[in-house]
Amino acid sequence: AFASEVALKELLYWKTRYHDNLKDMIKSYNKGSRWEKNEKSNADAEKYYEEIQDRIRRLKESKIFDSQSSNDQELQKSANSNLDLDPIGNAMPQTLAKTETK
Fold it and tell me: Which residues lie in Polar residues bias regions (predicted)?
């Protein structure tokens, strides 16, 4: 659970930095921002992105999550609750930690 919380926080950080650009977000999750300045890092990050896209496509095709679609809202709440945790010492921008106003 801890590793997934850290991964989620990092992905959300890159999502904010790249204004929801999924490709840049995934490339940066893999290589940080090195891919922007280094041709080899960019090639590696592109390959990683393509592998992730392939996995996503295969998961969607398998329809393994169809029975889980009714739980999407609960999963999102659970993921959002992880934002309150900061296992890496406030390294991510505070704007990522959204609180519900209900």
Answer: 65-83, 92-102
pTM for the model: 0.59
Question: HSE on the CB side for 11, CA within 13 Å?
Answer: 12
Q: How many CB atoms lie within 10 A of CB 69?
A: 9
- Residue 99: alpha-carbon gap to chain centroid: 19
Contact 28, 42 (CB under 8 A): no
Q: Tens digit of pLDDT for each residue in 11-57?
A: 999 999 999 999 999 999 999 999 999 999 999 999 999 999 999 89
Beta-carbon count within 10 A of 6 CB:
16
* 65 CB-near residues (< 8 Å, 6+ apart): 59
